[in-house]
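Re-run with default settings, no changes from the original entry. Doing this only to confirm the output is reproducible before filing.
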Amino acid sequence: MNFVHEPNNLFTKYYISNPFVCNESVIQFIGDDYEPLDYNNLPFQNETNRLTAEAIEKFGVKELPKFGSYGWFTELYTNKNYILAPINATPFQYPFPTIEITQSGATINIIITDPEDVAYDAYRLIFREGYFATEFITYEKSISIDSLYNGEYQLSILGYRVDGVTSIESKQTTVIITEGADAPNVVE
């Protein structure tokens, strides 16, 4: 039995049910309907075979961060080996939300706008400074942040939906924080 956690928050187990590979998944939701999962009794649901519908001798599944799962298998009667990378070829990521930034002193005010074709339930703001990052998770489309130190940051955003849909990460916007700055100091 193999378990993988996909970038869209889908948690899947793959196992052999003689002589086929079967898979079952559980989606971990976020947002207003969030309820912590009982990890002693996960609600797995049967799904169509993702790895192969052929009879197999052996198989394996691994995952790579931000890529998802990849798998390999050996057919039972032909002894041919196959690799499927990624297993879930459907794109997991959607257009990113846009942000409008204003600044008053050390306070950053951000207004988030969803793309036309998708509405997100939660947002992750990432302020990078060199090798370090400060992240904020919000369910609101308007947020004020005043807990950052003075410095130059690269700001990007990701959107998340309750059904597991994730946006791609937005391009980075430079934000400079200096105490007492009265006007927005944003450079793109």
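Residues 7 and 66 are 6 Å apart (CA to CA). The radius of gyration is 21 Å.
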